[in-house]
Specification:
This protein is of the alpha+beta class. The protein has a domain of 81 residues: 2-Layer Sandwich (Alpha-Beta Plaits), CATH 3.30.70.1070. The protein is built from four helices and four strands. It has a four-stranded antiparallel sheet with strand order 2-3-1-4. A hairpin with a 2-residue loop joins strand 2 and strand 3.
Length: 131
């Protein structure tokens, strides 16, 4: 029993010393950087890229969506919003998110005001993306 206790104390004392810390340096070929730069230039030129938005309302009456838009802007004035029409409905979608994870984080806050909001996939504006 004494041996086991001593062994546990030694392991508990040595374990933190074995933890590794440091920096990771990535070495990439210059052609990879060129491809990324070309893709970024293309996306910015086209001003659209695949991504996610959050739909907060849909209705056949445009005035109803304008009311929802005003309500949304009172809570989230910095977030982009888009009123889209696809027959027979208008849709109010917000945000420009590159990943679904980013959209889910925003959705948590938005659902406090718009409980029926949900994430949709589509084209987003590249000019609003942080590279």
């Amino acid at each position: 029993m004494r041996f086991i206790c001593t062994l546990l104390l030694v392991v508990a004392g040595v374990a933190p010393c074995l933890a590794q810390q440091g920096n990771i340096k990535v070495h990439a070929d210059s052609s990879v950087k060129k491809v990324i730069a070309l893709y970024r230039a293309y996306v910015l030129l086209e001003n659209e890229t695949p991504g996610y938005r959050i739909q907060i309302a849909a209705a056949s009456n445009r005035n109803q969506l304008m009311e929802a838009k005003v309500r949304f802007l009172t809570y989230f004035p910095e977030m982009a919003n888009y009123l889209e029409y696809q027959a027979p409905q208008f849709r109010l979608r917000v945000g420009d998110f590159r990943t679904q994870t980013e959209a889910e984080l925003a959705l948590e806050d938005i659902r406090k005001i718009f409980p029926n909001a949900f994430i949709v996939m589509g084209k987003i504006r590249a000019s609003r993306i942080e590279w």
